[in-house]
Amino acid sequence: MPDPKHLRLAVDIGGTFVDAMELDTRTHQVRFRKTSTTPARPWEGVLDAVTALGTDLSQVELFIHGTTLGLNAVLERRGEPTGIVTNDGFRDIFLIGRGNVPADHMYDFQYERPESLVLRRHTAGVRGRLDHRGRVVEELDAAGVREAARVLVEERGVVSIAVCFLHSFLDPSHEREAARIIREAYPEVTVSVSTDIVREYREYERTSTTVLDAYIRPIFERYVDRLERGLAERGFGGRFLIMRSGGGSMTSAVAKTSPTHTVLSGPAGGIVGAAHIADALGRRDLLTFDIGGTSLDACVIEHGYPVAAYEAQLEHFPLLIPTYDIRTIGAGGGSIAWLERGLLKVGPQSAGADPGPVCYGRGGTRPTVTDAAVVLGYVDPDRFLSGTMELRADAARAALDEQVAGPLGLSPEAAAAGVFDVLLARTVGAVRQITVERGHDPRGFSLLAFGGAGPLLAPLLAAEMGIGEVVVPFAPSGFSAWGMLSADIVDDFSRTVMTTLDDADLDGLETVFKDVETEAVASLEAQRVPAGRTVLERQFELRYLGQEHSLIVTAGRDLDRDAIRRAFEETHAARYGHAMDNRVQILNLRVRGVGRTDRPELVARPPGDGDAGRALLTRRDAYDFGTRATASFAVYDRALLEPGDAFDGPALVDEGTSTTVVPSGQRVEVEEHGYLLVRLVEAAS
User: Fold this and answer.
1) Which of 105, 169, 235, 311 is deepest in the core (most CB within 10 A)?
2) Where is the Hydantoinase/oxoprolinase N-terminal domain (predicted)?
3) Predicted model pTM
């Protein structure tokens, strides 16, 4: 039994499985378990995973959680009835939006925007107005706010209200007063205030962010409350943190007041872990490649740091939240293979956790990527999830034959290979978006493969794009949970200033920075971060005057006009291939408050004798993409491989919860920490 409070526990919910990982901070030992997601009662899936792991929660000092609950609530339209209170005459800001058509529907003349999250009768305008400089033009009508709240709550039945006024980012007093009035009259109603979430210009984007916050907040609060209660009943008394979409974590209390910051928290855990790996393994330039049950997520780690963004997109709704620049496509292990006019498609529809792929035997009838992997011989039906879940290979083969292979006139194996070909083509497109289209040569990066299906496809992607090396960590299907264990506590703050760099009052900017830093320090103190572990990072959001898009550059402690411009021009040239003589405009000042935490240590293992034969389990026929034919694959037990071991493909490395597929023409080496390095034979020699 470990000493009290020497354990950390991370749990990540995906669309299909829940991953739980335990770390003993004294011995650096890691244990991992995987259970099925419970979509109807998601907190139960988390508690099931903890139970399966067998962790004594009374010994846990830290529980950190990544969840897609808010994301799924929006995608599936399961949020609570939401209302909007805004300025009189501007109640349609959210409904109209930017009036733009998505690029993939540009020539679709029958395109219709998805149904809004808020009905028009659930929007209300009240008197009161600030001008573009934040000066009061008309005082807030308190009686009008009360009447608007009465109509929305008593007549329209909303249970959550978003408050967003024009130009409030310059002076939030009207918004805060309106929120006070609503809460006083209807304390049971959830109220989200735009300037409590983000203080930046662009009314539509700020309104959208606030609406999404209000839409998911009641559900998120109930979920966290039930999870906290369930953990407490099982003896947990440590700290409860939740991952943020832009990296780092926050206390559960803060998360309940800012649930929009959690919508991409699951993928963020993997990015945090990847940054740690980049530093520990000396591979500063990494491409993360995360394939789970429902989606594929890719991100660039450049010079040891993930590429960040400050606006995300959830369906067609913009979100002004810090996030990693992740490219996500609906392509995962549960993605359905289907035909459209004789063409094979893969995703974005997913079989999810219930019923799941056909091979799960839970009632699924449509073949998926996982079913194709079973047919190709990559997944051993008797060893899936370390033997805790037997797969029905015959059912997978029959479904693929009936719905894909037969109509196309192919064998089931050829159809399964086609599923992987289509998935690979979609993957190449996603990776090109964040590399080639951003001025990066993917051949200069290592590919970090994780997620349950990441190591299945990563060696094929590397061969297709000329990437020299694939890195496969331990327990790749739980890597996002492992990454959460190294997450700092983070909070982000911003202010819109809207001035040119030449005209900017640097002393005034310094004053704004200090005001924002005061907010950041207060937030970290409220989350019990010791002063000695607090780091404040300054940034400018800049663009050439007249441009639409902006870039982020780091600001030093001493503000220097020439240094700021040089940093912007270097960033612009790296991204777009050129710099200009145009005037530079400052849009926003940003401060990231970081509370440093202790990270899991990667422990080097003693080298083995170089004979990988000790780990050879068997040989099995499977499809080899190197020769486009069935071949005999050597099957290795990952747990028995030691540093210094090396072997050539075709091979399969089985570790119970995931399988690394190594086609012919590629070679595996085990580095000093036990990570697998998969390289093209030419690159390895």
Assistant:
1) 169
2) 8-185
3) 0.83
pLDDT (average), residues 574-592: 91
The set of long-range contacts for 29-35, using a CB threshold of 8 Å and a minimum separation of 24, is: 30/474, 30/475, 30/482, 30/600, 31/55, 32/475, 32/478, 32/481, 32/657, 34/385, 34/477, 34/478, 34/657
* 296-302/317-319 β-pairing: unpaired
Task: Measure the CA–CA gap between 188 and 546, rounded to whole angstroms.
Answer: 45
In this structure, the number of other CB atoms found within 10 A of the CB of residue 264 comes to 26
CB 123 within 8 A of CB 84: yes
Question: Quick one: tokens of 536?
Answer: 């404040």
Q: What is the pLDDT of residues 232-255, one digit of tens each?
A: 999 999 999 999 988 888 999 888
Helix/strand/coil percentages in the chain, nearest 5: 35, 30, 35
Q: Widest CA span of the chain, in angstroms?
A: 80
For 132-172, the pLDDT digits (tens) are 999 999 999 999 999 999 999 999 999 999 999 999 999 99
Q: Which two tokens stand for residue 672?
A: 């000093």
Contact 30, 476 (CB under 8 A): no
Q: For residue 165, which of 147, 145, 143, 188 has the smallest C-alpha distance?
A: 145
Q: How many CB atoms lie within 10 A of CB 648?
A: 14
Is 494 within 8 Å of 589 (Cβ atoms)?
yes
Give yes or no for residue 511 having a pLDDT over 90: yes
pLDDT tens sequence across 606-615: 898 889 999 9
- Give yes or no for residue 423 having a pLDDT over 50: yes
